[in-house]
């Protein structure tokens, strides 16, 4: 994040603190604008990164086997309220072109897609789209289970409610494959 962007966030946070009736100069709040600027640089770090680049592909012989990485934790920010939504992602793909991706890179890809203002549906399809772009697998399944703080700590206040979204592509986009994906996720 640029120095100018940091200064803008700090000034905006001071304005918000003042607007809610707080004193931004009281000791407990003096460093808050700078902390919030650092936090936004971290949780929105993907906004200025148009592509996911940090990955490696490896050759494989086993073309038809499903690769499933499940229960990948993530934290993102809802773009409507700038409050966190968080949970787990399950990612599966069927290799093609005799290539696979390093497993940790799938979790890094999830982080990359999460670190921007989001809605859960777009996060879900973005993970599938990125995987399609970098690996071009025969099939993809992505499921996201999340709790939204904007639905729990304010507004409708439905504590513990879960939202589940999914994207299916290619050979995994049919009823039989979806059922098999769900079965393996629940194992
Ligand atoms: N589809 C979708 N909706 C979301 C997501 N995160 C938050 N929302 C919803 O975005 C909507 C915004 O609705 P608005 O009526 O503009 O805002 P609001 O007055 O704060 O709405 P309430 O939350 O119902 O009080 C709400 O229904 C939220 O639950 C998300 O990831 N996906
Ligand atoms: Zn929200």
TrEMBL record:
Checking Gene3D superfamilies in the record gives:
1.10.286.10, 3.30.1130.10
Q: Name one GO biological process term.
A: one-carbon metabolic process
Supply one GO molecular-function term: GTP binding
Functional pathway? Cofactor biosynthesis; 7,8-dihydroneopterin triphosphate biosynthesis; 7,8-dihydroneopterin triphosphate from GTP: step 1/1
Q: Does the keyword Magnesium apply?
A: no
Domain spans labelled GTP cyclohydrolase I: 9-184
- The answer to whether the entry has keyword Ribosomal protein is no
Task: Point out the gene that encodes the protein.
Answer: folE
Family membership, please give it: Belongs to the GTP cyclohydrolase I family.
Into which EC class is this enzyme placed? hydrolase
Enzyme Commission identifier(s):
3.5.4.16
List the protein's name.
Answer: GTP cyclohydrolase 1
Q: Which PANTHER family match?
A: GTP CYCLOHYDROLASE 1 (PTHR11109:SF7), GTP CYCLOHYDROLASE I (PTHR11109)
Q: Which Pfam families match?
A: GTP_cyclohydroI
Positions of Zn(2+) binding: 78, 81, 150
Query: What keywords is this UniProt entry annotated with?
Result: GTP-binding, Hydrolase, Metal-binding, Nucleotide-binding, One-carbon metabolism, Zinc
Q: How does it assemble?
A: Homopolymer.
